[in-house]
Design brief:
60% helix, 4-stranded mixed β-sheet, 401 residues, mainly alpha, globular, 19 helices, single chain
Length: 401
């Protein structure tokens, strides 16, 4: 059975993508970008690439061009490709928004040197997948780094969508490579920075990091960097597990129905996103209460809460949740108790989730003062979360790779 590139796409990516495209903030930012491009306010992508990297012609890199052609055909693309390499010891690749009917793909020199065969084909397909699924139509970096910060609900949706966008791109790469072992090795190399010449890769051992996670407690494996649990990109063993499910499905040559695949992938990805905003458990309630108080105290760190901050707060918690009758001094006095309730009842990743959401609120409201950071530090210390996690959450990568 012939499988189309659009059929391969992750359902959660498609659903969130369509919803985000209709968001007024996303529309406004895209209109601003279009105006800048029309006015010629930025150099072209091609000019920037030619000045900072080396274009790989077909005679210079025939095998890479053959892979690109095979992936392009597999993904039903109809656009000319230009391939570039830049000097870097860090494994990376990226696909740029097309210009003048050309699509530009750039690779780090170290990646081209240490990724072989289907490993490289997976990376190529992954990058092309971002174009095929039009992921660049949602400029996540522009939105979250812009002068007018988005409301926290939108920020959370963007982070969630970006993770599922990576799952779709991974599927596109797997669709091109057709080799679970090679795609898993590629993700292992990207995660570890090691090459196949340095260590002996074992897929079962790598996947055991996922098996070590306790789903019922949302406890990620202890070998994972904690800051990766709440980044825009899925923690790589989760991506490998999602790809393993893909290969077991009808999309990857197995017998699992696509509907069942999407259910299983959501179950895997839920390890990264302990949901408490709508939960009815005592733990969820204690987490919400801490987020409520913490958000107000961060907003009031400079001594007053502005109209803009009230608007952001209400977008996050609901219309009418902020009133003049709110006793901020009482909330401050009760903060230690709320922190203790979360620490006593929530798992470590759930505590990290609350901390990450507080950082998103701070980012959305534009707070970067010592006073607001002090509130975040106090809550982090009480929850047993490192202050380094705050720095990561405040400065997290905001682009698709």
């Amino acid at each position: 059975m012939a499988i189309s590139a659009q059929t391969v796409r992750c359902d959660s990516d498609s659903t969130l993508y369509e919803r985000l495209l209709k968001d007024l903030t996303v529309k406004r930012v895209n209109e601003q970008i279009a105006r800048i491009e029309k006015e010629g306010g930025q150099p072209s992508v091609r000019r920037r690439l030619l000045s900072t990297s080396v274009r790989l012609s077909e005679s210079m890199a025939p095998e890479l061009h053959q892979m690109a052609d095979e992936c392009s055909k597999r993904l039903e693309m109809g656009i000319a490709l230009e391939l570039y390499v830049y000097s870097s010891p860090v494994y990376n690749a990226m696909c740029f928004k097309p210009e003048d009917d050309r699509l530009y793909v750039m690779f780090a020199s170290s990646l081209l040197e240490h990724f072989k065969g289907n490993e490289l084909k997976f990376v190529m397909g992954h990058e092309l997948g971002h174009h095929v699924y039009r992921h660049h139509d949602i400029p996540i970096g522009f939105i979250l780094r812009g002068q007018n910060r988005p409301d926290p609900r939108l920020a959370l949706d963007l982070f969630t969508w970006s993770r599922y966008a990576e799952i779709s791109a991974d599927r596109a790469g797997a669709h091109c490579a057709g080799d679970l072992e090679a795609t898993s090795r590629a993700l292992f190399k990207l995660a570890s920075g090691l090459s196949g010449d340095t260590i002996h890769f074992n897929l079962d051992d790598f996947l055991s990091q996922v098996d070590a996670m306790q789903v019922e407690d949302a406890e990620p494996g202890q070998n994972a960097p904690k800051e990766d649990w709440f980044s825009t990109h899925p923690f790589s063993p989760l991506r490998v597990k999602a790809l393993q499910l893909f290969h077991r499905s009808e999309l990857g040559g197995g017998d699992m129905r696509k509907d069942d695949l999407e259910i299983e992938v959501q179950r895997v990805m839920s390890l990264m996103e302990p949901n408490y905003l709508d939960g009815r458990t005592d733990t969820a309630e204690s987490m919400r209460r801490l987020l409520f108080a913490g958000s107000l105290l961060v907003a009031n760190a400079d001594g007053e809460i502005s109209e803009a901050e009230i608007a952001v707060f209400e977008k996050f918690f609901g219309k009418g949740t902020f009133t003049e009758e709110l006793d901020l001094e009482a909330l401050a006095d009760d903060l230690a108790s709320r922190i203790e309730q979360v620490r006593d009842s929530a798992s470590e990743p759930q505590a990290l989730q609350v901390m990450r959401d507080l950082c998103l609120v701070a980012r959305a409201e534009g707070h970067a003062t010592d006073a607001s950071r002090a509130v975040l530090d106090r809550i982090a210390d009480g929850l047993g979360v490192t202050r380094g996690f705050i720095c990561h959450a405040m400065d997290a990568e905001l682009e698709l790779d």
